[in-house]
Amino acid sequence: MSASSQTHVDLSGPLDGLCYEKQGGIAVLTIDRPERGNSLTKAMEALFRAIWADVREDPEVRVAIVTARGERHFSTGLDLASDEAQQGAVAANRPLDQSVFWSPHQNGVWKPVICAVNGLACGAGLHFVVDADIILASENACFLDTHVNVGMVGALENVGLARRLPLGSALRMTLMGRHYRMPARRAYELGLVDELVAMPSELLPLAREMAGAMLQNSPQDMALSKQAVWGSLERGYRDALEHAWALLRLHWNHPDFEEGPRAFAERRTPRWNPDPDARRGEAE
After folding, report:
1. 53: Cβ–Cβ under 8 A, 6 or more apart, which residues?
2. Does domain 18-214 have CATH number 3.90.190.10?
3. E strands of 49-150, at which residues?
4. Where are the domains of the chain?
5. Alpha helix locations (H) across 215-251?
6. Taking every pair of C-alpha atoms in the chain, what is the biggest distance, in angstroms?
7. Exposure pattern of 86-122 as b/e (b: 16+ CB <10 Å)?
8. Which residues contact 85 (CB under 8 A, 6 or more apart)?
9. How many angstroms separate the CA atoms of 220 and 241, rounded?
């Protein structure tokens, strides 16, 4: 999806309802409205869009983590009690790629993204779950969709659920609404959650550990690999292989393609080039 033509947002100061930190190649985006169930307002979408653009464009950022403050709620979804929701500002009669900018996928982020779910994930909060690359959850987490209970269509997040869950499980969440909460243990068994921990306090350390491992990899290799895997969900098997082959060939002229084997043979840490447009033989 296109993520261009966005309004400039200053990320250097306090952000309303969000916290954004970068350190050591890892960006951490925290939903910070625990007093409102970490619910989302339409105004926050511009902040998410700006943050994901920064993750995408900052060469120092190699991996991103999205989580939430507190232990009860990851996100209860859109704050329907907000003034903008009451005035109908939640809707946008425009094409999808001009309207929805919550998740990394919706903002064209091809760097690895880990989602750490520390409680209830509901409605619009599921955008971050279904569009992350790796999903961690604590035992107290649960997953719920209430679109049909509040006069809305369960669509975008629900399509993502159907990609990660058996069809019947995705439809159970979609059609039963608030009458069905999928526990973290069940979500783990079905593959919606990739790693389960006992306590919410264990989530961020585990996410950082995973991110730290990814920092050792070639940024360009990870970006193209992620595009190949996600792209396969939009294609038939043969077309997915052709797309993956094109991405693989695209990387052959990148310096990391030569640096990786050389570093392995010399038994040293690779010196990866973070520039996706770098080409072998060009001056450093």
Report:
1. 3, 6, 107
2. no
3. 63-68, 73-75, 113-117, 120-122, 134-138, 142-144
4. 18-214, 219-266
5. 219-232, 237-251
6. 63
7. eeeebeeeeeeeeebbbbbbbbebbbbbbbbbbbbbb
8. 41, 42, 78, 79
9. 19
Structure tokens, 139: 């035992």
Q: How far apart are CA 255 and CA 14, in angstroms?
A: 39
Instruction: Tell me the mean pLDDT per 10 residues along the chain, length 284.
Output: 56 87 97 96 93 96 98 94 56 78 96 98 97 98 94 92 96 97 98 97 98 97 96 91 89 92 92 91 62
- Report pLDDT for 84: 54
pTM of the complete model: 0.90
**pLDDT confidence of residue 50:** 96
Q: Give the integer Cα–Cα distance in Å for 73 and 46.
A: 22
Residue 61, CB half-sphere, CA atoms under 13 Å: how many? 22
Residues in CB range of 217: below 8 A, 6 or more apart: 272
**How does DSSP assign 162-174, residue by residue?**
HHHS-HHHHHHHH
